[in-house]
């Protein structure tokens, strides 16, 4: 019984999203490990279990955004190129049908504490409702958005209308029909909520601190016939996916911005724009994220294309300012469908809370610093997450000396290859700090890191190694590598969650590996091929 107190297991995985389900399947079904999952929610799906706000959908196209496991893609058919949350939940139900993950998963089991016990050589793990588990290996597969972020505005809890954080949207749905809707934040989530609500709301008001430099999604229906035909190439496609920088179905062009004449450049940008999705970001000139002058060309193109779509001059200057708020693509662009046209309509609005910040929330609505009160029926908080590190810092992980990871990472983030931490022996994590996380397609990233963890466990078993602990030196070296890679790019210029700059007081540093999936994979393989380079493989007691 996976819910019992004092659960004993070889591997305990925390989280049943893309990462946790992949690990469970491979470790249990292919390698014969005894595996259990603790999941805080009530179903599989990770972020797609939590996300059900209006318009929630993935902005990476299928079949790139799915498992490469053949028995999962063979007979599965999507209805749209960019599926919404309900279809992604159906996909996870199908995954369950094929893989039977749930029989080894304890839901409503939020981990609130864990420490490696040097005597038993096992992890002791505690859940919020007081159960314990003991496992030789602990794997955190909690995603990069496990800790919500709320604004610290005065009066936030006095609002009498409906107010929800995007990842805590009521399952039963919230009707926006005929309502006055406020959307706080312009990340991917805020853009999706705003454009969806604008279909039937009386008005939608977007509170914008930084404009999102959105790209056209070019959503379309997919037929079964075309998918069946394309499936002949899926094996090749999934192999190719791992050779690209971001684990996508395409990669950067092999030339720089100024290798092309202005006319060629315009035509190239135009073709990427027409194809839609992230092409303008991830299939563009290879110097786009490295060279400011090159990047300015991309911004100019984006700016011209977007300004054309907004007729109201004030809204145009706010949502698509002539001067770039940050280098193009250094904050995550959202894929939109008709966002600009929707907000341009007279009943809708955008409020500049960079220059006119929110002063307080009242029973009726939101007051900005200029004293104006706007009244709303619904406030959607699309203010994001303490991304990448917040989740793991919030689960009571203690190192072998009793120090909480929260303190270990207080002034900077340290890991070995973005999957292990010093003095957290036999613990791994994926889709988190210092991995390719934010710069890659989720399923590609978890398969790349998951395969490494799986191979590491198999090697430990084969070589009879019972204790694996990253060294502090290895962590320092990895931190340096992550920083150096990022410093060559334009990413550090922007105040983004990539840089930890979205949370007040959080250390500003690059939280993601910016070298791309192939380079990352090579670094990680090097560790395995060289006898766990950067790890101690004997417990201190055993040494004595
Ligand atoms: P994001 O991308 O972190 O966006 C959060 C937005 O909320 C962003 O526009 C922030 O403005 C804004 N924000 C955050 N705190 C405040 C306060 N206190 N006041 C005003 N505005 C605020 O989160 P999402 O949920 O949209 O997306 C998360 C990821 O999930 C996304 O990138 C995809 O990978 C999927 P800012 O830009 O910092 O000025």
Automatic annotation (TrEMBL):
Its cofactor is FAD. The keyword Flavoprotein applies. This is Cyclopentanone 1,2-monooxygenase. Belongs to the FAD-binding monooxygenase family. Signal peptide: none annotated. Gene3D superfamilies: FAD/NAD(P)-binding domain (3.50.50.60). The keyword Acetylation does not apply. GO terms for molecular function: flavin adenine dinucleotide binding; N,N-dimethylaniline monooxygenase activity; NADP binding. Pfam families: FMO-like. InterPro entries: FAD-binding_Monooxygenases, FAD/NAD-bd_sf, Flavin_mOase-like. Transmembrane segments: none annotated. It comes from Cladosporium halotolerans. Keywords: FAD, Flavoprotein, Monooxygenase, NADP, Oxidoreductase.
């Amino acid at each position: 019984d996976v819910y019992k107190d004092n659960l004993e297991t070889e591997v305990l995985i925390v989280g049943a999203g893309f990462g946790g389900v992949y690990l469970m399947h491979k470790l249990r079904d292919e390698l014969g490990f005894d595996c259990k999952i603790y999941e805080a929610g009530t179903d599989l799906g990770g972020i797609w279990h939590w996300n059900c706000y209006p318009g929630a959908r993935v902005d990476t196209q299928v079949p790139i955004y799915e498992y490469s496991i053949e028995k999962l893609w063979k007979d599965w058919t999507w209805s749209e190129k960019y599926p919404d949350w309900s279809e992604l939940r159906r996909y996870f139900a199908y995954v369950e049908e094929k893989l039977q993950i749930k029989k080894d998963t304890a839901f409503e089991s939020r981990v609130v504490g864990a420490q490696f016990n040097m005597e038993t050589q096992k992890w002791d793990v505690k859940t919020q409702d007081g159960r314990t588990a003991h496992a030789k290996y602990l794997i955190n597969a909690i995603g990069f958005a496990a800790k919500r972020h709320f604004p610290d505005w005065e009066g936030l809890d006095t609002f009498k209308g409906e107010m929800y954080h995007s990842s805590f949207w009521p399952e039963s749905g919230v009707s926006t029909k005929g309502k006055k809707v406020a959307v706080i934040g312009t990340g991917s989530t805020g853009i999706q909520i705003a454009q969806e609500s604008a279909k039937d709301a009386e008005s939608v008001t977007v509170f914008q601190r930084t404009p999102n430099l959105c790209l056209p999604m070019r959503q379309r229906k997919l037929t079964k016939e075309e998918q069946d035909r394309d499936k002949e190439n899926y094996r090749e496609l999934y192999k190719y996916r791992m050779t690209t920088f971001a684990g996508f179905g395409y990669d950067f062009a092999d030339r720089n911005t100024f290798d092309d004449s202005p006319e060629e450049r315009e035509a190239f940008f135009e073709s990427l724009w027409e194809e839609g999705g992230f092409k303008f970001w991830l299939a563009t000139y290879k110097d786009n994220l490295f060279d400011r002058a090159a990047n300015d060309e991309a911004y100019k193109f984006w700016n011209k294309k977007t300004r054309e779509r907004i007729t109201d001059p004030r809204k145009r200057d706010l949502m698509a300012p002539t001067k770039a708020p940050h280098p193009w693509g250094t904050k995550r662009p959202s894929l939109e469908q008709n966002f600009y046209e929707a907000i341009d309509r007279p009943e809708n609005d955008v409020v500049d809370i960079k220059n006119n910040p929110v002063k307080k929330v009242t029973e009726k609505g939101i007051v900005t610093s200029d004293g104006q009160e706007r009244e709303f029926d619904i406030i959607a908080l699309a203010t994001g997450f303490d991304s990448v590190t917040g989740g793991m810092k919030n689960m009571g992980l203690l190192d072998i000396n009793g120090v909480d990871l929260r303190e270990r990472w207080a002034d900077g983030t340290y890991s070995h290859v973005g999957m292990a931490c010093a003095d957290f022996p036999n613990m791994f994590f994926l889709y988190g700090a210092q991995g390719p996380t934010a710069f890659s397609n989720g399923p590609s990233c978890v398969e790349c890191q998951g395969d490494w963890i799986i191979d590491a466990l198999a090697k430990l078993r084969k070589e009879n190694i019972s204790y694996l602990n990253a060294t502090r030196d290895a962590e320092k070296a990895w931190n340096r590598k992550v920083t150096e890679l990022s410093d060559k790019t334009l990413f550090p210029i922007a105040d983004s969650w990539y840089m930890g700059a979205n949370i007040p007081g959080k250390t500003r540093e690059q939280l993601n590996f910016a070298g791309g999936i192939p380079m990352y994979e090579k670094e990680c393989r090097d560790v395995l091929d060289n006898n766990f380079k950067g790890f101690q493989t004997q417990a201190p007691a055993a040494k004595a």
